[in-house]
Structure formats: structure tokens, C-alpha cells
Amino acid sequence: MKKISKVILASTLVTGALLGTQAATPYHTVAEATTTPWYTYNGQTQFGGAFYLNTHFKNAVQHRGLSFNGYKISAPFNKKTIKYKKVHDQNVAIVSGSTASSVMFPVTKGTPIQKVTSIYGKPTKVFESTQGTVYRYQYKNATIEFTEAHKQVTMVSVYNGH
User: Fold this and answer.
1) Which of the chain's ends, N or C, has fewer CB atoms near its CB within 10 Å?
2) Residue 129: is its pLDDT beyond 80?
3) pLDDT of 77-92, one tens digit each?
4) Which stretches within 72-153 are classed as H helix?
């Protein structure tokens, strides 16, 4: 009986020491910096409001942490290996399985481009297309484009790479 008591006491002391050591370990912000920010969107985008003005959405675009209707927009954009698929009102460039390299979607009308620039800052490039004026923002891993027609955002495109 004494032997069992000693084993239980020793186990308790070892467990307590291990947990105490873990509690005393300092928190490192490096581990948090490597965590990818995620933003998941499900459903039709035209009825979702101006979700693309959310700072969490912007961070997810910048860090390839965006998911649309089950497709993670994380693969490099390569025209040779993608297959386009319409999912709800979005066009998704699927690389394989549930991994995609881009998504293009219409948005609820009514958002002036000034609201976009107040969140995203000065665009990397502004140019004309057949759909309207395009405001491009390029980041290290991704690009987002806002198409403006009739003084409001009508389309958003997100793709990986430049």
C-alpha cells in the first residue's frame, strides 16, 4: 500500500511541476504572427452588403486566408492549371479539390470607391476596363481589384500573385 501511495504522490508532483513550468513559460508573439487570418464567406455576394470593407476581410486577402463557399483562395494563379466554376454568383478559379486561386464576385450597389480607399488606402494602380474603372491593390501574396461603375463598386476580384 505504501508503494502505491508513493507512486501516486510522485505522479502528482511530476504533473504539477510540468503544469507549473508550462504556466511560467513566457508568451511569444512570433507564434501568433505565423497564424493565418481567416475570413469565410458563404452564399450570394450581391445580397451580403459591403463585407469587403471589413478589416478582417482585407487581412485575409493579404495573407491568403480567404474562403468562399467552401473554396480556399490560396493557390498561386496559373491559367494553365485552373478550371472556372460558377458558385452562387461568384466565379471561382479552382486548382484542385477545394483549393482555388481566384474569386470574382458582384457586390451590392451603393458603396462609393471613397469608402474602399479609406479602408485599403491608395491603390497600386488605377485603369479603365470594359466594366468600368478598376482600382488594384497589390500585396506580397495577393491582389484585390475593385471595379467602379456609375460612381459605385460593382465587382470585386481577388487572386493570388501579381
Assistant:
1) N
2) yes
3) 777 789 999 999 999 9
4) 113-120
